[in-house]
Amino acid sequence: MHLFQRSIEGVAYGWRWLRQVVSTAAVFASVFACVLASDARAVVIDTLTGTGNTSAPVDDPGWANVGVLGVGTGIYLGNNWVLTAAHVGGGSIVLNGGTYAMLAGSGTTLTNNGAPGKSATTDLYMFQLASTPPGLPNITIASSSAAPSAAVTMIGSGRDRGAFTQWSVNTLPTPWVWTPVSSGGNFAGYQTIGSRSMRWGTNTVAASGIWVADGFGDVNMLATEFTYSGSPSNEAQAAYGDSGGGVFRKNGSVWELSGTILTVAGFSGQPDPASTPVYGNVTYAADLSFYQSQIVTIVPEPSATVMLAAAGALAWAACARQTGPAPRGRARR
Question: Is 318 a member of any domain?
């Protein structure tokens, strides 16, 4: 997870969690490099222990297609192609218990489709594998943005959750001053630890189709907020190592990949939001509906692949009928 911490006024369009965050993306890019190079770890969930959800949910959006990719996470789309964050990059990915190497020279960085005033390229990267992971389906990329309040399932390989923590936060100075307390704090959340697990959690979309510069280019994003429901839940927030992970949304009866996790935003002065998720923090993921046309040009949608295969089979059958062996018969003298 690349840590991105900045003011989100004017980006979030009036969301109730708008925070003044003062550290710059450049500072936290160096934090990302230092921390993740040695230890990148699953989405943090708000269950009683925080240790569950390490196998596919009953209604599985694509668990086996998401895997550990170096310091981050990658998503296997099908036809040997993987999608991840550009700041994670390519390499060997662990999928469904197997490790698959990147095909040398196959990497490509996605663009912002020439959007005015935005960076030419974005923080999304695709590469091909040298061999095919068996038994994994193609993933459908969402063609429209997830609406606010849409339910999503998030899958990543970020840090495991540690202890519940409270802070007494003085919001008068800038930045805010955070002091850990044993009880009675006005802010609360979790520490994270160094162990690594694949994990899934749930959330709802707060907004989509918003532009955020995460230090690796402008990105058309969707966002979720880490909220406390009053009791343990599967509510998820991204942490270090989740970059490149998937945000899945069910469209009717079909699961679609709506987002790729890229970054987080926290409060003013908050201790490292990517390692200390606090209620009210935000996870940003690339809104893949904006990049869908580029992705399906590289990796045809499952329906297109099936149609091409079916057309090929029909053509072969027709050719076989026309050029097949001549009927057998008795030769005339």
Answer: no
